Amino acid sequence: MYHPAPQNRRDFIKFSALAAALLGFAGCTTLQRNPRKPRPIAAGAKIRLAQIGCGGKGYSDIMAHEDEEVVALCDIDWVGTPNPWDTKPGEEPLSNVKKLIARFPNAKRYTDYRKMLLEMDDQIDAVCVSTPDHMHFLPAYMAILMGKHVYVQKPLTQTVGEARELLRIARLTGVCTQMGNQGHAGEGIRLVKEWHDAGVIGDVREVNVWTNRPVWPQGMPAWPKAEPVPAGLDWDSFLGRAPDRPFSSEIHPFKWRGYVDYGCGALGDMACHLMDAAYWGLDLGAPTSVELKKIVGASPVAFPTSAIVEYQFPARGGKPPVKLTWYEGGLKPEKPAQLEANRELAQGGQLIVGSKATVYDGNDYCNSPRIIPAELHRTMAPNFPPKTIPRVPQGNPHKEWTAAIRAGQPQAAGSNFEYSVPFTETVCLGSLAILVGKKFTWDATAMKTSLPEADQLLYPTYRPGWKPAELA
Question: What keywords are assigned to this protein (predicted)?
Protein backbone atom coordinates (compact mmCIF):
# COMPACT_ATOMS: atom_id res chain seq x y z
CA MET A 1 0.00 0.00 0.00
CA TYR A 2 1.09 3.58 -0.67
CA HIS A 3 2.47 5.28 2.43
CA PRO A 4 2.50 9.08 2.17
CA ALA A 5 5.68 11.05 2.60
CA PRO A 6 5.67 14.48 4.24
CA GLN A 7 4.53 17.48 2.24
CA ASN A 8 7.00 19.24 -0.01
CA ARG A 9 9.37 21.31 2.07
CA ARG A 10 7.90 24.73 1.26
CA ASP A 11 4.31 23.78 2.06
CA PHE A 12 5.33 21.71 5.06
CA ILE A 13 7.34 24.52 6.70
CA LYS A 14 4.54 27.02 6.07
CA PHE A 15 1.78 24.75 7.37
CA SER A 16 3.49 23.28 10.41
CA ALA A 17 4.80 26.68 11.54
CA LEU A 18 1.31 28.17 11.22
CA ALA A 19 -0.24 25.31 13.15
CA ALA A 20 2.34 25.65 15.91
CA ALA A 21 1.80 29.40 16.15
CA LEU A 22 -1.95 29.00 16.25
CA LEU A 23 -1.78 26.87 19.37
CA GLY A 24 -0.68 30.05 21.08
CA PHE A 25 1.52 28.86 23.94
CA ALA A 26 5.15 29.37 24.81
CA GLY A 27 7.35 26.47 23.83
CA CYS A 28 5.15 25.13 21.03
CA THR A 29 7.67 25.99 18.33
CA THR A 30 10.37 24.18 20.30
CA LEU A 31 8.11 21.16 20.68
CA GLN A 32 7.41 21.26 16.96
CA ARG A 33 11.14 20.89 16.27
CA ASN A 34 11.72 18.39 19.09
CA PRO A 35 8.47 16.59 19.94
CA ARG A 36 8.40 14.41 23.03
CA LYS A 37 8.33 10.65 23.29
CA PRO A 38 5.44 9.06 25.23
CA ARG A 39 5.77 8.02 28.86
CA PRO A 40 5.91 4.23 29.32
CA ILE A 41 2.95 2.77 31.19
CA ALA A 42 4.03 0.78 34.25
CA ALA A 43 2.84 -2.80 34.54
CA GLY A 44 -0.57 -2.88 36.21
CA ALA A 45 -1.03 0.90 36.00
CA LYS A 46 -4.07 2.56 34.49
CA ILE A 47 -3.73 4.85 31.49
CA ARG A 48 -4.52 8.45 32.41
CA LEU A 49 -6.97 9.71 29.80
CA ALA A 50 -8.33 13.09 28.77
CA GLN A 51 -11.35 13.57 26.50
CA ILE A 52 -11.72 16.57 24.15
CA GLY A 53 -15.32 16.90 22.97
CA CYS A 54 -17.80 15.27 25.36
CA GLY A 55 -21.34 16.14 24.28
CA GLY A 56 -21.72 13.94 21.19
CA LYS A 57 -19.61 10.97 20.10
CA GLY A 58 -17.14 11.85 22.81
CA TYR A 59 -19.54 10.51 25.43
CA SER A 60 -19.37 6.95 24.15
CA ASP A 61 -15.66 7.29 23.38
CA ILE A 62 -14.68 8.12 26.95
CA MET A 63 -17.19 5.68 28.43
CA ALA A 64 -15.39 2.99 26.44
CA HIS A 65 -12.37 3.80 28.62
CA GLU A 66 -14.12 4.04 31.98
CA ASP A 67 -11.95 1.25 33.35
CA GLU A 68 -8.89 3.46 32.84
CA GLU A 69 -8.28 6.66 34.82
CA VAL A 70 -10.22 9.55 33.30
CA VAL A 71 -8.41 12.63 34.60
CA ALA A 72 -9.77 15.48 32.46
CA LEU A 73 -12.73 16.40 30.30
CA CYS A 74 -12.90 19.29 27.83
CA ASP A 75 -16.00 20.63 26.10
CA ILE A 76 -17.25 23.98 24.84
CA ASP A 77 -20.62 23.59 26.58
CA TRP A 78 -20.95 22.13 30.09
CA VAL A 79 -24.73 22.50 30.02
CA GLY A 80 -25.35 20.50 26.87
CA THR A 81 -28.57 19.25 25.28
CA PRO A 82 -30.70 16.73 27.23
CA ASN A 83 -30.78 13.30 25.62
CA PRO A 84 -34.30 11.82 25.94
CA TRP A 85 -33.37 8.75 23.86
CA ASP A 86 -30.97 7.49 26.51
CA THR A 87 -33.17 8.04 29.56
CA LYS A 88 -34.93 5.45 31.68
CA PRO A 89 -38.70 5.83 32.28
CA GLY A 90 -39.41 8.28 35.07
CA GLU A 91 -35.94 9.87 34.93
CA GLU A 92 -35.27 13.44 33.90
CA PRO A 93 -33.33 13.59 30.61
CA LEU A 94 -29.73 14.62 31.08
CA SER A 95 -27.19 15.88 28.57
CA ASN A 96 -24.17 13.71 27.87
CA VAL A 97 -21.87 16.21 29.55
CA LYS A 98 -23.96 16.12 32.73
CA LYS A 99 -23.77 12.33 32.70
CA LEU A 100 -19.99 12.48 32.39
CA ILE A 101 -19.71 14.97 35.25
CA ALA A 102 -21.66 12.53 37.42
CA ARG A 103 -19.69 9.50 36.23
CA PHE A 104 -16.24 11.08 36.60
CA PRO A 105 -16.58 13.59 39.45
CA ASN A 106 -12.83 13.79 40.02
CA ALA A 107 -11.98 14.59 36.40
CA LYS A 108 -11.00 18.21 35.98
CA ARG A 109 -13.17 20.11 33.49
CA TYR A 110 -12.04 22.61 30.83
CA THR A 111 -13.43 24.52 27.87
CA ASP A 112 -10.00 25.12 26.25
CA TYR A 113 -8.06 22.00 25.31
CA ARG A 114 -4.79 23.95 25.18
CA LYS A 115 -5.13 25.03 28.79
CA MET A 116 -6.02 21.48 29.78
CA LEU A 117 -2.98 19.96 28.09
CA LEU A 118 -0.65 22.57 29.55
CA GLU A 119 -1.95 22.48 33.10
CA MET A 120 -2.23 18.70 33.27
CA ASP A 121 0.71 17.79 31.06
CA ASP A 122 2.35 15.46 33.58
CA GLN A 123 -1.00 13.86 34.50
CA ILE A 124 -2.14 12.84 31.00
CA ASP A 125 -0.92 9.81 29.04
CA ALA A 126 -3.46 9.70 26.24
CA VAL A 127 -6.13 11.90 24.65
CA CYS A 128 -9.37 11.15 22.79
CA VAL A 129 -10.52 13.80 20.29
CA SER A 130 -14.24 13.80 19.39
CA THR A 131 -14.83 17.39 18.27
CA PRO A 132 -16.41 18.62 15.01
CA ASP A 133 -14.28 17.67 12.01
CA HIS A 134 -12.57 21.04 11.52
CA MET A 135 -11.13 20.86 15.04
CA HIS A 136 -9.74 17.32 14.97
CA PHE A 137 -6.30 18.34 13.83
CA LEU A 138 -5.19 21.05 16.28
CA PRO A 139 -5.95 19.18 19.54
CA ALA A 140 -4.44 15.97 18.15
CA TYR A 141 -1.40 17.87 16.87
CA MET A 142 -0.73 19.51 20.22
CA ALA A 143 -1.25 16.27 22.14
CA ILE A 144 1.14 14.33 19.90
CA LEU A 145 3.79 17.05 20.15
CA MET A 146 3.56 16.62 23.93
CA GLY A 147 4.01 12.85 23.68
CA LYS A 148 0.38 11.86 24.28
CA HIS A 149 -1.18 8.86 22.58
CA VAL A 150 -4.27 9.86 20.58
CA TYR A 151 -7.59 8.32 19.54
CA VAL A 152 -9.18 10.66 16.97
CA GLN A 153 -12.68 10.31 15.63
CA LYS A 154 -13.29 9.91 11.92
CA PRO A 155 -12.72 11.57 9.59
CA LEU A 156 -9.26 11.96 11.01
CA THR A 157 -8.95 15.47 9.58
CA GLN A 158 -10.84 17.84 7.31
CA THR A 159 -7.98 18.21 4.82
CA VAL A 160 -5.21 16.15 3.23
CA GLY A 161 -2.47 18.42 4.56
CA GLU A 162 -3.62 18.05 8.15
CA ALA A 163 -3.70 14.26 7.89
CA ARG A 164 -0.20 14.06 6.48
CA GLU A 165 1.20 16.32 9.18
CA LEU A 166 -0.32 14.15 11.91
CA LEU A 167 1.41 11.11 10.42
CA ARG A 168 4.73 12.94 10.31
CA ILE A 169 4.73 13.89 13.97
CA ALA A 170 3.27 10.55 15.07
CA ARG A 171 6.24 8.86 13.40
CA LEU A 172 8.64 11.24 15.15
CA THR A 173 7.19 10.74 18.62
CA GLY A 174 6.27 7.05 18.49
CA VAL A 175 2.88 7.60 20.12
CA CYS A 176 0.11 5.03 19.62
CA THR A 177 -2.65 6.30 17.37
CA GLN A 178 -6.10 5.17 16.28
CA MET A 179 -8.85 6.62 14.10
CA GLY A 180 -12.41 5.96 15.25
CA ASN A 181 -13.64 3.88 12.30
CA GLN A 182 -14.66 1.04 14.58
CA GLY A 183 -15.50 -1.43 11.83
CA HIS A 184 -11.79 -1.79 11.16
CA ALA A 185 -11.53 -3.80 14.37
CA GLY A 186 -14.39 -6.10 13.35
CA GLU A 187 -14.75 -9.55 11.89
CA GLY A 188 -16.36 -8.60 8.57
CA ILE A 189 -13.52 -6.54 7.19
CA ARG A 190 -11.10 -9.38 7.96
CA LEU A 191 -13.25 -11.88 6.11
CA VAL A 192 -13.33 -9.68 3.01
CA LYS A 193 -9.55 -9.34 2.99
CA GLU A 194 -9.00 -13.06 3.54
CA TRP A 195 -11.44 -13.98 0.76
CA HIS A 196 -9.82 -11.54 -1.66
CA ASP A 197 -6.23 -12.46 -0.82
CA ALA A 198 -7.04 -16.17 -1.22
CA GLY A 199 -8.56 -15.58 -4.66
CA VAL A 200 -12.08 -16.59 -3.58
CA ILE A 201 -13.77 -13.67 -5.31
CA GLY A 202 -11.26 -13.34 -8.14
CA ASP A 203 -10.02 -10.09 -9.66
CA VAL A 204 -11.91 -7.00 -8.49
CA ARG A 205 -12.30 -4.09 -10.90
CA GLU A 206 -15.47 -2.51 -9.56
CA VAL A 207 -16.68 -1.43 -6.12
CA ASN A 208 -19.92 0.38 -5.28
CA VAL A 209 -20.48 2.03 -1.90
CA TRP A 210 -23.56 3.94 -0.79
CA THR A 211 -25.22 5.57 2.21
CA ASN A 212 -28.56 7.12 3.16
CA ARG A 213 -26.68 9.98 4.83
CA PRO A 214 -27.02 12.87 5.26
CA VAL A 215 -29.58 12.53 8.03
CA TRP A 216 -28.68 16.10 8.99
CA PRO A 217 -29.35 19.22 6.86
CA GLN A 218 -27.27 19.70 3.71
CA GLY A 219 -27.76 21.78 0.60
CA MET A 220 -28.65 24.92 2.57
CA PRO A 221 -28.48 27.92 0.21
CA ALA A 222 -27.02 30.37 2.75
CA TRP A 223 -25.72 30.70 6.27
CA PRO A 224 -28.48 30.68 8.92
CA LYS A 225 -29.61 33.80 10.75
CA ALA A 226 -27.68 34.88 13.83
CA GLU A 227 -29.02 33.95 17.26
CA PRO A 228 -27.88 34.89 20.77
CA VAL A 229 -25.17 32.61 22.11
CA PRO A 230 -26.68 30.34 24.78
CA ALA A 231 -25.43 30.73 28.32
CA GLY A 232 -22.51 28.46 29.01
CA LEU A 233 -21.52 27.93 25.37
CA ASP A 234 -18.00 28.98 24.34
CA TRP A 235 -18.84 29.78 20.72
CA ASP A 236 -15.36 31.12 19.96
CA SER A 237 -13.87 27.76 20.88
CA PHE A 238 -16.42 25.99 18.70
CA LEU A 239 -15.35 28.12 15.74
CA GLY A 240 -11.69 27.45 16.45
CA ARG A 241 -9.74 27.94 13.26
CA ALA A 242 -12.91 28.44 11.15
CA PRO A 243 -14.08 31.89 9.96
CA ASP A 244 -15.81 34.11 12.49
CA ARG A 245 -19.56 33.64 12.14
CA PRO A 246 -22.49 34.25 14.52
CA PHE A 247 -24.00 31.43 16.52
CA SER A 248 -27.03 29.59 15.20
CA SER A 249 -28.88 26.57 16.53
CA GLU A 250 -28.94 25.46 12.88
CA ILE A 251 -25.20 24.83 13.25
CA HIS A 252 -24.68 23.70 16.85
CA PRO A 253 -25.45 21.17 18.16
CA PHE A 254 -25.37 18.32 15.60
CA LYS A 255 -26.13 20.20 12.37
CA TRP A 256 -22.57 21.49 11.84
CA ARG A 257 -21.60 18.45 9.74
CA GLY A 258 -23.34 19.70 6.61
CA TYR A 259 -21.51 23.05 6.53
CA VAL A 260 -18.22 23.22 4.64
CA ASP A 261 -16.53 25.25 7.41
CA TYR A 262 -16.98 22.55 10.04
CA GLY A 263 -17.71 19.16 8.49
CA CYS A 264 -16.94 16.92 5.55
CA GLY A 265 -20.50 16.09 4.55
CA ALA A 266 -21.95 12.62 4.12
CA LEU A 267 -18.90 11.27 2.30
CA GLY A 268 -16.49 12.47 4.97
CA ASP A 269 -18.71 11.10 7.71
CA MET A 270 -19.47 7.65 6.34
CA ALA A 271 -16.79 6.69 3.81
CA CYS A 272 -14.35 6.05 6.67
CA HIS A 273 -16.70 3.19 7.59
CA LEU A 274 -18.22 2.06 4.33
CA MET A 275 -15.12 2.20 2.12
CA ASP A 276 -12.86 0.59 4.71
CA ALA A 277 -13.31 -3.05 3.66
CA ALA A 278 -12.56 -2.33 0.01
CA TYR A 279 -9.72 0.09 0.74
CA TRP A 280 -7.95 -2.34 3.08
CA GLY A 281 -9.01 -5.62 1.55
CA LEU A 282 -8.04 -4.66 -2.00
CA ASP A 283 -4.97 -2.67 -0.95
CA LEU A 284 -6.24 0.27 -2.99
CA GLY A 285 -3.74 2.92 -1.91
CA ALA A 286 -3.99 6.39 -3.46
CA PRO A 287 -6.41 7.10 -6.33
CA THR A 288 -5.13 8.47 -9.62
CA SER A 289 -8.26 10.54 -10.26
CA VAL A 290 -11.48 11.60 -8.53
CA GLU A 291 -14.56 12.93 -10.29
CA LEU A 292 -17.94 14.30 -9.25
CA LYS A 293 -20.43 12.47 -11.46
CA LYS A 294 -23.70 13.85 -10.08
CA ILE A 295 -24.77 16.48 -7.57
CA VAL A 296 -28.18 17.46 -6.19
CA GLY A 297 -28.66 20.50 -4.00
CA ALA A 298 -25.33 22.21 -4.64
CA SER A 299 -24.60 25.05 -2.24
CA PRO A 300 -21.89 27.67 -1.66
CA VAL A 301 -21.92 27.07 2.09
CA ALA A 302 -22.87 23.42 2.53
CA PHE A 303 -22.34 19.98 1.11
CA PRO A 304 -25.10 18.82 -1.28
CA THR A 305 -28.20 16.82 -0.48
CA SER A 306 -26.87 13.96 -2.62
CA ALA A 307 -23.94 13.18 -4.88
CA ILE A 308 -22.09 10.49 -6.80
CA VAL A 309 -18.28 10.47 -6.80
CA GLU A 310 -16.07 8.16 -8.86
CA TYR A 311 -12.55 7.16 -7.82
CA GLN A 312 -10.06 5.49 -10.15
CA PHE A 313 -7.35 3.39 -8.49
CA PRO A 314 -4.37 2.06 -10.45
CA ALA A 315 -3.16 -1.50 -10.81
CA ARG A 316 -1.23 -2.64 -7.73
CA GLY A 317 1.28 -5.40 -8.41
CA GLY A 318 -0.80 -8.25 -9.80
CA LYS A 319 -4.09 -6.58 -8.88
CA PRO A 320 -6.09 -4.86 -11.65
CA PRO A 321 -7.20 -1.22 -11.59
CA VAL A 322 -10.39 -0.50 -9.65
CA LYS A 323 -13.27 1.91 -10.20
CA LEU A 324 -14.91 2.75 -6.87
CA THR A 325 -18.18 4.69 -7.02
CA TRP A 326 -19.60 6.47 -3.98
CA TYR A 327 -23.35 7.24 -3.71
CA GLU A 328 -24.93 9.38 -0.99
CA GLY A 329 -28.20 11.00 -0.03
CA GLY A 330 -30.30 7.97 -0.93
CA LEU A 331 -28.72 7.39 -4.34
CA LYS A 332 -27.70 3.78 -4.99
CA PRO A 333 -26.13 1.62 -7.67
CA GLU A 334 -28.36 -0.61 -9.74
CA LYS A 335 -29.50 -3.77 -8.03
CA PRO A 336 -27.06 -6.50 -9.06
CA ALA A 337 -28.37 -9.49 -10.96
CA GLN A 338 -26.86 -11.79 -8.32
CA LEU A 339 -29.15 -10.43 -5.57
CA GLU A 340 -32.31 -12.48 -5.13
CA ALA A 341 -35.55 -11.13 -6.59
CA ASN A 342 -37.13 -10.79 -3.14
CA ARG A 343 -34.24 -8.71 -1.76
CA GLU A 344 -33.39 -5.04 -2.23
CA LEU A 345 -30.20 -3.14 -1.52
CA ALA A 346 -30.03 -1.82 2.04
CA GLN A 347 -30.03 1.90 2.87
CA GLY A 348 -26.27 1.76 3.07
CA GLY A 349 -23.71 -0.83 2.09
CA GLN A 350 -21.17 -2.04 -0.44
CA LEU A 351 -20.75 -4.30 -3.41
CA ILE A 352 -17.28 -5.64 -4.18
CA VAL A 353 -17.56 -7.12 -7.66
CA GLY A 354 -15.07 -9.90 -8.39
CA SER A 355 -14.54 -12.01 -11.49
CA LYS A 356 -15.56 -15.13 -9.53
CA ALA A 357 -18.04 -13.75 -6.99
CA THR A 358 -19.59 -10.56 -5.65
CA VAL A 359 -19.46 -9.61 -1.97
CA TYR A 360 -22.44 -7.71 -0.58
CA ASP A 361 -22.71 -6.13 2.86
CA GLY A 362 -25.80 -4.11 3.77
CA ASN A 363 -24.67 -2.15 6.82
CA ASP A 364 -22.31 0.67 7.69
CA TYR A 365 -19.48 -1.27 9.30
CA CYS A 366 -19.13 -4.38 7.12
CA ASN A 367 -20.51 -6.49 9.94
CA SER A 368 -21.81 -9.33 7.79
CA PRO A 369 -20.30 -9.64 4.30
CA ARG A 370 -21.82 -12.38 2.14
CA ILE A 371 -21.30 -13.77 -1.32
CA ILE A 372 -24.44 -13.26 -3.39
CA PRO A 373 -26.69 -15.00 -4.11
CA ALA A 374 -27.00 -16.73 -0.73
CA GLU A 375 -26.97 -20.16 -2.35
CA LEU A 376 -23.56 -19.45 -3.87
CA HIS A 377 -22.28 -18.38 -0.45
CA ARG A 378 -23.43 -21.68 1.03
CA THR A 379 -21.77 -23.59 -1.80
CA MET A 380 -18.47 -21.73 -1.47
CA ALA A 381 -18.34 -21.59 2.35
CA PRO A 382 -16.69 -25.01 2.88
CA ASN A 383 -13.76 -23.85 0.79
CA PHE A 384 -13.31 -20.42 2.41
CA PRO A 385 -9.69 -19.83 3.51
CA PRO A 386 -8.61 -20.14 7.14
CA LYS A 387 -8.81 -17.07 9.36
CA THR A 388 -5.21 -15.91 9.27
CA ILE A 389 -5.60 -12.22 10.17
CA PRO A 390 -5.45 -11.66 13.95
CA ARG A 391 -8.85 -10.83 15.46
CA VAL A 392 -9.48 -7.96 17.88
CA PRO A 393 -11.12 -9.18 21.11
CA GLN A 394 -14.81 -8.22 21.05
CA GLY A 395 -13.99 -6.18 17.93
CA ASN A 396 -13.25 -3.29 20.30
CA PRO A 397 -11.05 -0.55 18.76
CA HIS A 398 -10.69 1.27 22.10
CA LYS A 399 -9.26 -1.79 23.84
CA GLU A 400 -7.07 -2.44 20.81
CA TRP A 401 -5.63 1.06 21.19
CA THR A 402 -5.02 0.84 24.94
CA ALA A 403 -3.39 -2.57 24.47
CA ALA A 404 -1.04 -1.00 21.92
CA ILE A 405 -0.22 1.77 24.41
CA ARG A 406 0.62 -0.73 27.16
CA ALA A 407 2.75 -2.77 24.79
CA GLY A 408 4.49 0.30 23.37
CA GLN A 409 3.65 -0.91 19.86
CA PRO A 410 2.10 1.83 17.64
CA GLN A 411 1.46 -0.65 14.81
CA ALA A 412 -0.68 -2.89 17.04
CA ALA A 413 -3.76 -0.68 16.67
CA GLY A 414 -5.29 -1.54 13.30
CA SER A 415 -6.42 1.95 12.28
CA ASN A 416 -3.20 3.61 13.39
CA PHE A 417 -2.09 6.61 11.37
CA GLU A 418 0.12 4.55 9.03
CA TYR A 419 -3.15 3.10 7.71
CA SER A 420 -5.76 5.73 8.54
CA VAL A 421 -3.85 8.73 7.14
CA PRO A 422 -3.66 7.48 3.53
CA PHE A 423 -7.26 6.28 3.91
CA THR A 424 -8.29 9.71 5.22
CA GLU A 425 -6.52 11.36 2.29
CA THR A 426 -8.63 9.28 -0.09
CA VAL A 427 -11.83 10.23 1.75
CA CYS A 428 -10.87 13.91 1.81
CA LEU A 429 -10.22 13.85 -1.94
CA GLY A 430 -13.82 12.70 -2.47
CA SER A 431 -15.15 15.61 -0.43
CA LEU A 432 -12.81 17.89 -2.36
CA ALA A 433 -14.26 16.63 -5.69
CA ILE A 434 -17.73 17.58 -4.45
CA LEU A 435 -16.50 21.06 -3.53
CA VAL A 436 -14.72 21.82 -6.84
CA GLY A 437 -17.29 20.03 -9.00
CA LYS A 438 -14.75 18.74 -11.51
CA LYS A 439 -12.59 15.76 -12.26
CA PHE A 440 -8.97 16.01 -11.16
CA THR A 441 -5.97 13.73 -11.15
CA TRP A 442 -4.00 13.13 -7.97
CA ASP A 443 -0.26 12.82 -7.50
CA ALA A 444 0.11 11.52 -3.96
CA THR A 445 3.90 11.78 -3.91
CA ALA A 446 3.94 15.42 -5.01
CA MET A 447 0.73 16.06 -3.03
CA LYS A 448 -0.80 17.88 -5.99
CA THR A 449 -3.94 17.69 -8.12
CA SER A 450 -4.44 18.80 -11.72
CA LEU A 451 -6.64 21.72 -10.62
CA PRO A 452 -5.31 24.87 -8.90
CA GLU A 453 -8.66 25.37 -7.13
CA ALA A 454 -8.43 21.86 -5.71
CA ASP A 455 -4.83 22.37 -4.58
CA GLN A 456 -5.96 25.38 -2.57
CA LEU A 457 -8.19 23.09 -0.51
CA LEU A 458 -5.48 20.57 0.39
CA TYR A 459 -4.56 22.66 3.42
CA PRO A 460 -6.87 24.31 5.94
CA THR A 461 -7.42 28.02 6.38
CA TYR A 462 -7.17 29.79 9.72
CA ARG A 463 -9.24 32.56 11.17
CA PRO A 464 -7.21 35.79 11.33
CA GLY A 465 -6.46 36.80 14.89
CA TRP A 466 -7.19 33.43 16.46
CA LYS A 467 -3.85 33.45 18.20
CA PRO A 468 -4.68 34.28 21.82
CA ALA A 469 -1.83 35.33 24.04
CA GLU A 470 -3.71 33.96 27.03
CA LEU A 471 -5.13 30.48 27.24
CA ALA A 472 -7.76 31.11 29.89
Answer: Oxidoreductase
